[in-house]
Structures are given as structure tokens and as C-alpha cells.
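Project outcomes to date are best conveyed with an example. Our students and postdoctoral researchers have been running inverse folding experiments weekly, and each run begins with a structure described purely in C-alpha cells. The record below, which covers 484 residues, was selected by the lab manager from last quarter's runs and is presented without edits.
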């Protein structure tokens, strides 16, 4: 039976919301009608409801590909809190017995969350082929371009998985995808006729700070000044694990604020604990590598600081997207020295030598267990069935893209008129008029004053929650609208 627009509206209202946010209606209507869809919506715009609502209306199973275990846990918890019990995650945290039990009972589920690597397992593909897949979702779809070639080549095999399981429709969602990345997503997921909804990346409530300092000592001193002047939860993004650890300790000593570090070197329990401590307000400052942030839904982050140059404007946008998700004004700052640009350039140009690829392919067993990221990446490609020449071509193409991404980042930093305009042009978003008081540039006392004096219609997250509809609104950080 066809799903009518009235059915969509009824489902929305049953969830306790009054209206859609921009783009949600178009994406949901296309998906329930059986069309493939690419949706690009800014952070905080409610991407998750674009598949959660259709998943409730459609029969069969909705498969959601997530890049991180933390994202899976978060989305499972949200759905369960909203009353949906037929939701599971297949991931490496399950013991073999529980894994097999979940796999066996997938026909009873409505939502399955899974990583791209797990989808490569033959037994999972066979099980999915036996089920009616109503919707196949790739969340954070920019990872196909940004993570696939660099260190998670399983993303490059998602199109083959889609061909095998034959879902009724495919939905790719992301907050950061310029035209080239959009084209790559559509091509990799084998959906050339996909419909698209491309929203603007602009977040008017965010100040885009860019400041250059002479050396690392001046950078830390400026960080302390920012922490003293901008009150509220703060994320400090660091370029390395060691830097995250050192900066967290120095912040606690210099300011007395509760600070901790977060990076991929921590065990899963420690990462989860620190994430929850930050979200719940037990930590004032979290110093993290890029391993933290994607999908983290803390509404009141007031300051996001980069102590290194992001590899691309896509990475930059993902990170600053953690700020001001409640709609209130928040400050983001990129602090850099001249040496930071040189380091970022080196990262952009780095790739394995052709001889290294050929050596690993010739004797893979000799390299198993070697603590080298490039070697482990080549082994991952080989495990997925890529030929050595394909690996060389993928990595060479990715190097070209990385250099172009670095060049775009430099253009953003160097612009003397309006950093925001450069940012918006990169993502083909409509331009806006530069606001001398609240737009971009150095974070002055006037900027902080404009932040503090600005009223916001955003929800009061401390209000008492009295019924299930209000609980659902609170989960998605909205008031009367669908949230993320």
C-alpha cells in the first residue's frame, strides 16, 4: 500500500512534532516513495529523523551504516527511548553467541545499525539477502570519500553490498559534501538516478574565528584567554594523541577547569565514560583528536577550538558543527602558527610508495601485526579483494583530493575579507552579507559581548520533561520541530 503525505504528517505528529525542518519533508517523501536519495543537511538539522520516520512507516528492515560504535549506541538508545524496541546493532562488541542470535532474529527487527566492515562478512550478506530491506541508509556519507581511500576501504565496497541485498531504496546523509563529494557518494553507492536535497552549510549562530600566533607557547596562552572569556562547555581539537593529553593537563593546571582528553588510543570503556561525562556536564573541557565528535549531540557547546589546521574544510565543518546545536550563539576558533600550515601540507601529500604496496601484496603474512598505519591500510585493501594496482590508483587519486582539500583550507585561512564567504563558496552554499559584529575573524571582546547579549529562541534544556512526547523532543534537541 502506498504511503501518502497524510500518513507522513500523522507519523510526525504522533511523535510529538509540529512541523518539519528544511529538507526533511522532501527527503522523507522521496524515500517512502521508493526513490534513492542524497540528503546534505547542516549539523543540527535533523538528519536522523530522515530515516527514523520512514523506518517506522515502511515494512521490512531499515539498515543503517554508521562509522562509529558510539554513533550506533546513541541511535539505538534514541530509538528505544522513543518507544521502538525492534532495533539492534551488529558490531564487534557482541560475543559470538549474542552475535549469532541477533543475526538469526533480524527478521523480527525494524532497524539494524552496522559498520561498513561488518557488512563485508559473507554470513551477514547472506542473511540480509533473505530479508526484505525497505531502506538502506549510509549515515555520515562523506566518509565514503574522506575515510574510504585513507583508512577504511570497506566504504568503497558498499555499492557492491547494496547490489547484493537489493533494498527498495537507498538514502545517503551527510552535513558536509561539496559537489565533488556528492558525485563520489552517488557513484560509490551505485545510485546514478538518485534525487538530491542540498541544504546550505551555513550556521549563522556560529562565529568563525581565525587567528594566527607566532609559536606554540603563544597558542596555549591564547587558548587560556579564550577559556577565560567564553563561558560554557568547550571542545579543543588537537592534532595528535600526545597533544590532547598534554593540553588537557595544562588547562586544568592553568584554569582550574575540569578537563580531560579523548583519542582512539583509549580503551572503549574510557572513551564512552569521557564522552558521557562531557555530555552530562561533569567535564568543562574535552581535548580530543578527530576521533571525537561525529554524531555527538551535546546542545550547549559554546566554544570549539582547533589547535591544528584541519585537513579540509569538510573536516573543519564537521568539528565546528559540535558548537551551538541549541541555536544559541557560540564561538569557533582556529589557532595556528606558520609551522602548522607546513605540517598540514605534509599530511596532505603523504601516501605509501608503490614499492611498499607491492611488497605487502607479495608477502602479506610478513606484515601482519606491524604497527604502521600505511601497512595496515594496504592489508585492509588486500583483505577486501582489491588488486595492488587498484590500491595504488585509489591512494594516488586520494592524494590529489587531499592536496586540493588543503588548498581550500589555506584559501579559507588567508582570506582577508570574509572567511565565511570562502567556506560557503566551497560547499556551493548561498552567500551571506558580512556582519562586522558577528561573522568571522579574530575573537575580540566585542564578539564575546555580542555572544553573551544575544537572545535565542532555542529550547531550555533544563525544563522539566513531563510526557513521552516531550521526552522525544528533548532527545532530538528541538522544540516543536524534528531535531537531530
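After processing, the design step wrote out the following sequence:
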Amino acid at each position: 500500500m502506498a504511503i501518502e503525505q497524510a500518513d507522513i504528517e500523522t507519523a510526525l505528529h504522533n511523535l510529538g512534532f509540529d512541523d518539519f525542518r528544511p529538507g526533511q519533508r522532501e527527503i522523507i517523501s522521496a524515500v517512502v516513495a521508493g526513490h534513492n536519495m542524497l540528503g546534505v543537511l547542516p549539523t543540527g538539522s535533523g538528519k536522523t529523523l530522515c530515516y527514523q520516520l520512514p523506518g517506522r512507516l515502511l515494512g521490512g528492515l531499515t539498515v543503517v551504516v554508521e562509522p562509529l560504535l558510539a554513533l550506533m549506541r546513541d541511535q539505538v538508545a534514541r530509538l528505544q527511548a522513543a518507544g521502538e524496541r525492534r532495533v539492534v546493532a551488529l558490531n564487534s562488541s557482541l560475543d559470538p553467541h549474542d552475535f549469532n542470535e541477533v543475526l538469526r532474529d533480524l527478521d523480527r527487527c525494524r532497524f539494524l545499525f552496522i559498520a561498513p566492515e561488518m557488512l563485508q562478512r559473507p554470513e551477514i550478506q547472506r542473511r540480509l539477502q533473505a530479508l526484505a530491506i525497505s531502506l538502506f541508509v549510509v549515515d555520515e556519507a562523506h566518509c565514503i570519500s574522506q575515510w574510504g581511500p585513507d583508512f577504511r576501504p570497506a566504504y568503497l565496497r558498499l555499492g557492491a553490498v547494496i547490489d547484493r541485498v537489493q533494498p527498495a531504496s537507498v538514502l545517503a546523509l551527510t552535513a558536509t559534501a561539496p559537489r565533488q563529494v556528492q558525485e563520489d557518494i552517488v557513484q560509490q553507492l551505485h545510485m546514478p538516478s538518485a534525487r538530491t536535497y542540498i541544504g546550505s552549510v551555513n550556521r549563522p549562530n556560529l562565529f568563525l574565528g581565525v587567528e594566527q600566533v607566532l609559536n606554540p607557547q603563544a597558542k596555549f596562552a591564547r587558548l587560556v584567554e579564550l577559556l577565560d572569556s567564553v563561558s560554557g562547555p568547550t571542545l579543543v581539537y588537537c592534532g595528535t594523541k600526545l597533544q590532547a593529553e598534554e593540553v588537557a593537563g595544562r588547562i586544568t593546571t592553568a584554569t582550574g577547569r575540569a578537563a580531560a582528553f579523548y583519542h582512539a588510543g583509549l580503551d572503549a570503556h574510557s572513551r564512552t565514560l569521557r564522552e558521557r561525562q562531557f555530555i552530562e556536564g561533569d567535564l568543562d573541557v574535552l581535548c580530543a583528536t578527530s576521533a571525537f565528535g561525529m554524531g555527538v549531540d551535546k546542545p550547549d557547546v559554546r566554544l570549539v577550538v582547533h589547535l591544528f589546521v584541519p585537513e579540509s574544510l569538510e573536516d573543519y565543518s564537521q568539528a565546528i558543527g559540535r558548537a551551538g546545536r541549541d541555536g544559541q550563539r557560540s564561538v569557533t576558533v582556529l589557532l595556528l602558527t606558520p609551522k602548522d600550515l607546513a605540517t598540514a601540507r605534509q599530511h596532505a601529500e603523504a601516501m605509501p610508495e608503490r614499492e611498499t604496496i607491492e611488497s605487502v601484496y607479495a608477502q602479506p603474512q610478513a606484515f601482519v601485526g606491524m604497527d604502521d598505519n600505511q601497512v595496515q591500510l594496504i592489508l585492509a585493501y588486500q583483505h577486501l579483494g582489491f588488486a595492488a594496482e587498484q590500491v595504488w590508483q585509489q591512494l594516488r587519486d586520494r592524494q590529489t583530493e587531499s592536496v586540493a582539500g588543503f588548498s581550500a583550507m589555506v584559501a579559507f585561512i588567508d582570506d582577508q575579507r570574509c572567511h565565511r564567504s570562502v567556506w560557503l563558496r566551497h560547499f556551493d552554499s548561498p552567500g551571506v552579507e558580512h556582519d562586522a559584529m558577528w561573522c568571522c575573524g579574530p575573537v575580540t571582546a566585542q564578539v564575546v559581548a555580542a555572544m553573551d547579549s544575544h537572545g535565542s529562541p532555542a529550547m531550555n534544556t533544563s525544563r522539566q520533561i513531563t510526557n513521552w512526547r516531550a521526552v522525544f523532543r528533548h532527545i532530538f534537541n528541538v522544540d516543536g520541530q524534528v531535531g537531530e
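DSSP finds 20 helices and 14 strands in the chain. The CA atoms of residues 239 and 357 lie 27 Å apart. The training component of this project remains on track.
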